[in-house]
Design brief:
alpha+beta; seven-stranded antiparallel beta sheet; globular
């Protein structure tokens, strides 16, 4: 691969213009993916992400979609470059992958498509996108071999020609292949937008100028991160919390020590050994969570590129829950990511409480329904519906926490009732904020949600909840948020650790946790006294 000169001296205006153009490209490719997709998980819930990488595999820009998806991007291009000779790549090549150990991924439903961008016959950058394919259901999670099809980085397209045997292999291992094919085509369409827009940018400004601006933007992100770290006091702060899940009877202890020294920051995690469950995190999932939180606390305006990570050091025991090794299962890793995010906030709160919120709901509450259609035009076909449900946001230093939102590493949307009931044999009988779930305080925490589903056809269900034993903590005297929970009707057969069956006419209730409060409740203004009912 011929090196291009990048030692150009660019004025700040040019760098800013090109940086804004890169951000515009990833946002446009993201919208193209959402609009072209077929499944409700992408077209309605927006469970997808897009990014641009330089030719060496460093993040140039990521759209403001799902923070944890950065974990599936971080190692993908480096793995492609390590296993496929760049000299043999051609325009129209597209690489696909998802594996947590040989594919750069964090869990198998997140399938990545990456396409090299060529300028004048030379590799200049990569456009990359990820879509969560809600497909691999009704599975155990003792190890990764039970969780779905593992795809290392391989070509799905070669010089623009579809590798039909590869596509057929993928679809044969999917439970809803029609959705998968349509969403994969949407991902391809999004990447084409990224390729064309980047090529147009290079034609307008010159490829050397664009590449040099990319380097300058990485350096700028590093400088801003270092300046933000240096503005905080030096020292070490340790915080402990527990992670509770339906997979285990007892809460799991977690801890982090955040150390600031000059313009660098280190995060050292403590966690038990990886478990026979899908809650394990790969190192890239941990890094994505850390980079998101540190950026949010230090300076949210820092550009989302690889430069911001340079002053950050992250350690966690190899083979642990937070840095697992093959063949640990990872399907539910976002549950753990959410708890890790608030764990870090708990440490930062000791150094700079004015920069952080109280604890959020710390969860990614998930309900997955699946079954075979028993009536209608699709009779006999298999269906899968996954949704993640928002909860309470943590109270802020100057405002209440937001109600019923997705927090931290997820950032998807709550599915509208209309889309749910049109697409699936389910009726949503209740969808409401939960009174009493907000943590009390000068500023109250956000309220959790209640959703009650009634099945109109028999289906299998899996529910993943957290904070059912613990509660989201408050800051500076604020109270804890309410618990998460789920319940079924009196005639429904017993669920085993959140998994069971609903027969037609039976119902399931899911309640998400509330957020913690900020400041002492007695300091709350009288005009805000309503909504001040403490979580029980």
């Amino acid at each position: 691969m011929t090196a291009r000169p990048t030692a150009l001296t660019l004025d700040p205006i040019t760098v800013e213009v090109i940086g804004a153009a890169l951000s515009s490209i990833v946002e446009e490719t993201g919208e193209a993916l959402v609009r072209a997709s077929y499944s409700t998980n992408i077209k309605e819930r927006r469970d997808c992400s897009t990014a641009l990488f330089d030719r060496e595999g460093r993040t140039l820009c990521q759209a403001e979609h799902i923070p944890v998806h950065l974990g599936s991007f971080l190692d993908f291009i480096p793995m492609v470059l390590a296993e496929h000779d760049p000299a043999g790549m051609r325009p129209g090549d597209v690489f696909v992958g998802n594996d947590a150990y040989r594919g750069g991924g964090t869990h198998l439903p997140d399938i990545v498509l990456a396409e090299p961008i060529f300028i004048d016959g030379e590799l200049a950058a990569w456009t990359v996108n990820l879509a969560h394919h809600s497909d691999f259901v009704d599975r155990a999670h003792a190890h990764i071999y039970q969780e779905g099809l593992r795809i290392p980085p391989i070509r799905l397209y070669r010089a623009g020609e579809l590798q039909k045997d590869v596509q057929e292999l993928i679809l044969l291992n999917c439970q809803v292949p029609r959705e998968r094919l349509s969403d994969l085509r949407a991902q391809m369409a999004a990447n084409r937008v990224g390729v064309h827009r980047f090529q147009e940018l290079c034609a307008r400004h010159g490829v050397n100028t664009v590449l040099a601006a990319g380097e300058a933007l990485l350096d700028y992100a590093e400088r801003k991160m270092r300046a933000g770290i240096a503005a905080l006091p030096d020292g070490s702060w340790r915080f402990e919390d527990v992670f509770d899940t339906l997979d285990f009877d007892d809460p799991i202890p977690l801890a982090v020590t955040v150390t600031i020294s000059g313009d660098e920051i280190g995060l050292e995690f403590e966690a038990p050994q990886q478990m026979r469950s899908g809650i394990n995190m790969t190192r890239t999932a941990l890094l994505a969570t850390v980079y998101y939180i540190v950026k949010s606390v230090i300076d949210p305006t820092i550009l989302p590129n690889a430069g911001l990570a340079r002053p950050i050091t992250v350690t966690a025991p190899q083979g642990s829950l937070l840095n697992c090794s093959h063949p640990a299962a990872v399907n539910g890793r976002v549950q753990t990511c959410q708890r890790v995010a608030d764990l870090i906030i708990g440490a930062f709160a000791q150094a700079a409480p004015e920069r952080v919120s109280a604890c959020t709901n710390s969860a990614c509450t998930v309900a997955v329904f699946s079954g075979t259609r028993q009536t209608g035009p699709g009779k006999g076909s298999y269906w899968v519906y996954l949704e993640t449900i928002g909860g309470g946001g943590g109270a802020r230093p100057d405002a209440d926490g937001l109600d019923g939102i997705h927090v931290h590493a997820t950032n998807t949307s709550n599915l509208p009732v209309e889309a749910l009931e049109v697409e699936y044999p389910l009726i949503l009988e209740r969808y409401e904020l939960v009174d009493g779930s907000a943590g009390a305080g000068k500023h109250r925490g956000g309220m959790g949600l209640r959703r009650v589903y009634r099945a109109t056809e028999d289906c299998m269900v899996r529910v993943d909840i957290s904070r059912n034993l613990s509660r989201s903590w408050g800051l500076l005297g604020g109270g804890p948020g309410g618990h998460g929970s789920f319940a079924t009707g009196p005639d429904t057969s017993a669920f085993d650790r959140g998994q069971g069956e609903l027969r037609a006419g039976e119902w399931l209730e899911v309640v998400t946790p509330g957020g913690g409060g900020y400041g002492r409740p007695e300091e709350r203004a009288a005009s805000c006294a309503e909504n001040q009912v403490a979580a029980e």
